[in-house]
Amino acid sequence: MDARSWSRHIVEKEVPCIIGEIAVPAFLYDLCAGGCMVELGDSRSVVGQRVVIDLYQLETACGEAVWQSGCCVGVRFDVPVHDAVVRHIGFTPPILPFEKQAPRDRFGRVLPPLAAGDQRQLGL
Predict the structure, then answer these.
(1) pTM for the structure as a whole
(2) What are the residue boundaries of the structural domains of the chain, listed by start?
């Protein structure tokens, strides 16, 4: 497999998208300067079709659907998206070091510390 030309950023946001000449809702999973992966609401075949994605009014990316796996579609852009736009839209990890981040449940609530359980003496 070839090495990627651009670094990929996690996005995970809904974006307006036009495939062929049909407007469809899409979920943008990741983005790099040269392309992206979107998930469509259905699994109709779109490989080879023109794709236009509105990147939050910062830029409109035009390209071609080059691969598809179920509802997920890989898009290669005609012209690379500026790196500043990719970084702005992409996921930015928290500034806190990992060790200081409190574990949370899927609703964002802080989880209590785990009990140490029964303390046992090793019988050697």
Answers:
(1) 0.68
(2) 9-88
| 44-68 per-position pLDDT tens digit | 889 999 999 998 777 899 999 999 9
The two three-digit tokens of residue 100, written as one number: 């200081």
Tens-place pLDDT, residues 62-98? 999 999 999 899 999 999 998 888 888 887 566 677 6
Q: Name the burial class of residue 52, with classes exposed (0-12), middle (13-18) and buried (19+) by CB atoms within 10 angstroms of its CB.
A: middle
CA dihedral 39, 81, 5, 45 (to 10 degrees): 30
- Length of the chain as a residue count: 124
| CATH 2.40.10.220, applies to 9-88 | yes
